[in-house]
């Protein structure tokens, strides 16, 4: 497979970005350092190139019915200009992908999906469209038509205001507006995956350099920094946000992976509903918990979790929290170990390190 | 990036400073830069017997875990006790304050296998 590049590849290199392969794309993992970049987003603002994310458009009068069958959340609750976090499931209840869904109007929706899953998701949607016999639905993979930037952090609104006439105060959390930023037509979405206030901007790829430079320049005085994938991961982890391939996968259901809150079993029908309903009735075999280490150490994905001598689960993501300066982890554990305050141990190489189940998020704003 | 002339280097990016039968060991400027922010260091206890080429400790950045390998065989006679409490010292001072252990060398001939600064720089360029 050829590694793809975003339109900002050269800009990342000019800024000293350390490039790595991620989900089939060459992306910057860091510029100056993960901790500095992480703290910039928490305290000021950060700019992320997220052009690798995929976009899949649904048009036509049958779009909502199709989306309702495809997703676990209730898309009928959306109004025009609103965004919903959701997921696609297999019939057995495992997760195809976690997604955000944008409603432009009743005949026009857009999914934003994970980069590595874009082709898989599109094929999955096409198959569901065919199987379901949905009339008047047009499905298009529009990933090549969009570049995407995420501006995140407490200074985001002040920075973006300088480049747009759109009244950003009128865009609530998880809503969007189509406007101009630095004279470029942009979908301005008040969303993100860092736990901070911020925006995700969708626009034509040939405008990426203009927007990237305009934002970095106007935000420089506010402490805005370009941010790589390294800090993107530590920021989402501090909020206990799931990452596909870690907390969610074909083998992990949304109920296990902490997405019970978007799993709308009361919906009449959706792919995976029966399996998930059964899992809920019988009780999930394992649950995602947030763990804080009470001894020095850095937990990592795949490390075993113990309660005394008993192996009770596995770490799905772990790091040293740049905000808290202690080891934090997400882990799938047996349900009786998921109670807040339960002392557990994480196997780190040849030793076990003490940890405790805590109430997420790790970092409160 | 700095590669002091008086040090020797391994292919695993450790540095060695030789003083009589005593060698001080750390990781190179190149290694700390590649790792990024170092947040955790695990060192052996004084008295541990090391075998050249075998891991003796661990350096962790936010993103990755890396073993550190013994450049020579011998006994650990001192460890940098301050390092576990201030692991970022490896980033800020890899050749001085960021030293990791001192080894009493058991076979001085093993030093001949190590690279000098020029050879190490050439090695890094070749690897890149």
UniProtKB/TrEMBL annotation, chain B:
Q: How is the cofactor bound?
A: Binds 1 lipoyl cofactor covalently.
Q: Which GO terms describe its biological process?
A: glycine decarboxylation via glycine cleavage system; protein lipoylation
Question: Could you tell me the superkingdom of the organism this chain comes from?
Answer: Bacteria
**Per its Swiss-Prot or TrEMBL entry, what cofactor is needed?**
(R)-lipoate
Instruction: State if Ion transport is listed as a keyword.
Output: no
Quote the Pfam families the UniProt record gives: GCV_H (PF01597)
- The PTM N6-lipoyllysine maps to 63
Tell me the keywords, alphabetical order: Lipoyl
GO CC terms of this entry: cytosol; glycine cleavage complex
The residues covered by the Lipoyl-binding domain are: 22-104
Purpose: The glycine cleavage system catalyzes the degradation of glycine. The H protein shuttles the methylamine group of glycine from the P protein to the T protein.
Cross-referenced HAMAP family = GcvH
Assembly state and interactors? The glycine cleavage system is composed of four proteins: P, T, L and H.
PANTHER family attached to this UniProt entry = GLYCINE CLEAVAGE SYSTEM H PROTEIN (PTHR11715), GLYCINE CLEAVAGE SYSTEM H PROTEIN-RELATED (PTHR11715:SF3)
NCBIfam families per the record?
gcvH, PRK01202.1
Protein family according to the UniProt entry: Belongs to the GcvH family.
Name under which the protein is recorded: Glycine cleavage system H protein
**In which organism is this protein found?**
Desulfuromonas soudanensis
């Amino acid at each position: 497979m050829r590694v793809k590049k975003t339109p900002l590849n050269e800009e990342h290199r000019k800024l000293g970005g350390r490039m790595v392969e991620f989900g089939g794309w060459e992306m910057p993992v860091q510029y100056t350092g993960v901790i500095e970049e992480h703290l910039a987003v928490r305290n000021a603002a950060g700019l992320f190139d997220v052009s690798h994310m995929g976009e899949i458009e649904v048009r036509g009068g049958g779009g909502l019915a199709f989306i309702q069958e495809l997703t676990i959340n209730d898309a009928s609750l959306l109004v025009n200009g609103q965004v919903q976090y959701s997921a696609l499931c297999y019939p057995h209840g495992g997760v195809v992908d976690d997604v955000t869904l944008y409603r432009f109007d009743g005949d026009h929706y857009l999914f934003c999906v994970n980069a590595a899953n874009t082709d898989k998701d599109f094929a999955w949607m096409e198959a569901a469209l065919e199987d379901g016999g949905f009339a008047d639905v047009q499905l298009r993979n529009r990933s090549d038509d969009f570049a995407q930037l995420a501006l995140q952090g407490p200074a985001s609104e002040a920075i973006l205001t300088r480049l747009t006439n759109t009244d950003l105060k009128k865009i609530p959390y998880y809503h969007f507006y189509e406007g101009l930023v630095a004279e470029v037509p942009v979908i301005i979405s008040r969303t993100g995956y860092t736990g901070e206030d911020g925006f995700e901007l969708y626009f034509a790829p040939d405008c990426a350099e203009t927007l990237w430079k305009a934002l970095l320049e106007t935000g420089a005085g506010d402490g805005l920094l370009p941010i790589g994938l390294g800090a993107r991961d530590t920021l989402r982890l501090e909020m206990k946000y799931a990452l596909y391939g870690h907390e969610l996968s074909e083998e992990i259901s949304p109920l296990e992976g902490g997405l019970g809150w978007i799993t709308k079993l009361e919906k009449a029908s959706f792919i995976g509903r029966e399996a998930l309903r059964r899992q809920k009735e019988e009780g999930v075999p394992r649950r995602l918990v947030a763990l804080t280490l009470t001894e020095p150490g850095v937990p990592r994905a795949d490390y075993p979790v113990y309660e005394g001598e008993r192996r009770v689960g596995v770490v799905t993501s772990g790091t040293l929290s740049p905000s808290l300066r202690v080891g934090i982890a997400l882990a799938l554990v047996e349900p009786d170990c998921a109670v807040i305050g339960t002392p557990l141990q994480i196997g780190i190489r040849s030793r076990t390190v003490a940890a405790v189940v805590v109430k997420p998020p790790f970092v409160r704003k | 990036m700095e590669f002091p002339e008086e040090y020797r280097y391994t292919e695993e990016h450790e540095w060695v400073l030789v003083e009589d039968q005593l060698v001080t060991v750390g990781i190179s400027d190149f290694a700390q830069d590649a790792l990024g922010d170092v947040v955790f260091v695990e060192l052996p206890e004084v008295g541990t017997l090391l075998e050249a080429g075998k891991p003796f400790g661990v350096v962790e950045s936010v993103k990755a875990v890396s073993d550190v390998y013994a450049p020579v065989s011998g006994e650990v006679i001192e460890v940098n006790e301050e390092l576990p409490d201030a692991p970022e010292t490896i980033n800020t001072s890899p050749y001085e304050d960021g030293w990791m252990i001192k080894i009493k060398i058991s076979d001085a001939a093993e030093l001949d296998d190590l690279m000098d600064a020029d050879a190490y720089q050439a090695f890094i360029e070749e690897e890149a």
